[in-house]
């Protein structure tokens, strides 16, 4: 289990690349949706090539179908999670919006406890509370000027879709027979889901979106996003989800991912972006680290 936790912590920490890409691209006026789609297209091409030369072990068709369908749905919904979160942040309090959406980690935690028998120990409950408190502190510490109230619906919509996305991503890991579906296949399926969502969302102006690809700067951001996604998907995320679920603690997977992301992005903002830390952020950083430790303890399980 420890190795699985380390893989998930490394994945969550590497999500700072996604935040950096989205942040810098938005500041330059680049279409985030087109960057997502381009990254997904690269993942599909790479994944298809890898599977052509190194196919997955054979497994029952229903197992492969439902595993791939679950991960496809995760990628599909994740596209809209980011779109709605961006919409909410345009007019709403960015810190609070971010905290609301990240709080979706509660959904896969509860599903693991209720439906898959993950032990609800005192340390794990305390860890979840600590992580949610950390999210709240970071939310209130960030720039929170508000323009209107339309942001609330977008933020809640993003939260709910994030809950669905996270559950669909982690669900196959609870079933040992799904292990035959490799991380490459799962990454490919998630990319197909994101690409499908992009096409459906932009079906009326798809040609204009294709014109976005002529911008060389867009491809630099795409390369960063695709490279990070391929490394995470192939070597860390899905393997970590499987290992933690096999140890009977699948419910803690997304809390570990999110809290690791909190810590890494805070450190990135402080050391790379040279942003000054506020007292609330110091508190949030400490709570996030305490939360990671508590939810991974086996005491009382």
Task: Describe the protein in words.
There is one protein chain. The protein has 301 residues and is mainly alpha-helical. Helices cover 76% and strands 0% of the residues. Helix 3 runs antiparallel to helix 9. It is globular, with a radius of gyration of 19 Å. The two termini are 14 Å apart. The mean pLDDT is 91.
Give the structure's gist in a few sentences.
The protein is mainly α.
What is the SS-derived class?
mainly alpha
Order of helices and strands: HHHHHHHHHHHHH
Mean pLDDT: 91
> Beta-strand level of the residues, as a percent range?
under 5%
Count of β-strands: 0
**Number of helices, counting only DSSP H or I runs of 4 residues or more:** 13
Q: What distance lies between the first and last C-alpha atoms, to the nearest angstrom?
A: 14 Å
Reported for the largest beta sheet, the result is: none
Shape descriptor: globular
Low-confidence regions = none
Helix content: over 70%
Radius of gyration: 19 Å
Topology:
Layout: H1 2-14, H2 16-27, H3 32-53, H4 61-91, H5 94-102, H6 106-115, H7 122-141, H8 151-170, H9 183-201, H10 206-211, H11 216-246, H12 253-271, H13 279-295
Q: What tags apply to this protein structure?
A:
single chain, 301 residues, mainly alpha, 13 helices, globular
């Amino acid at each position: 289990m420890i190795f699985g936790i380390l893989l998930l912590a490394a994945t969550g920490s590497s999500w700072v690349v996604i935040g950096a890409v989205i942040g810098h691209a938005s500041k330059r006026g680049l279409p985030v949706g087109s960057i997502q789609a381009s990254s997904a297209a690269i993942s599909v091409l790479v994944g298809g090539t890898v599977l052509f030369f190194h196919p997955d072990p054979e497994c029952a068709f229903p197992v492969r179908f439902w595993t791939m369908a679950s991960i496809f749905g995760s990628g599909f919904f994740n596209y809209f999670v980011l779109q709605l979160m961006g919409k909410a942040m345009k007019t709403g309090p960015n810190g609070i919006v971010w905290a609301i959406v990240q709080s979706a980690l509660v959904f896969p935690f509860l599903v693991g406890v209720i439906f898959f028998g993950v032990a609800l120990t005192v340390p794990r409950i305390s860890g979840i509370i600590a992580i949610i408190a950390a999210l709240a502190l970071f939310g209130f510490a960030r720039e929170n000027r508000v323009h209107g109230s339309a942001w609330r619906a977008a933020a809640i919509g993003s939260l709910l879709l994030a809950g669905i996305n996270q559950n669909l991503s982690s669900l196959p890991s609870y079933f040992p027979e799904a292990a035959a579906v490799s991380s490459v296949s799962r990454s490919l399926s998630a990319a197909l889901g994101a690409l499908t969502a992009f096409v459906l969302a932009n079906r009326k102006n798809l040609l204009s979106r294709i014109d976005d690809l002529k911008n060389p700067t867009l491809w630099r951001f795409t390369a960063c996003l695709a490279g990070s996604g391929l490394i995470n998907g192939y070597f860390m995320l899905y393997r970590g989800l499987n290992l933690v679920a096999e140890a009977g603690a699948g419910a803690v997977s997304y809390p570990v991912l999110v809290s690791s992301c909190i810590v890494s992005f805070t450190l990135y903002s402080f050391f790379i972006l040279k942003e000054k830390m506020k007292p609330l952020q110091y508190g949030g950083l400490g709570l996030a680290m305490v939360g990671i430790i508590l939810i991974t303890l086996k005491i009382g399980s």
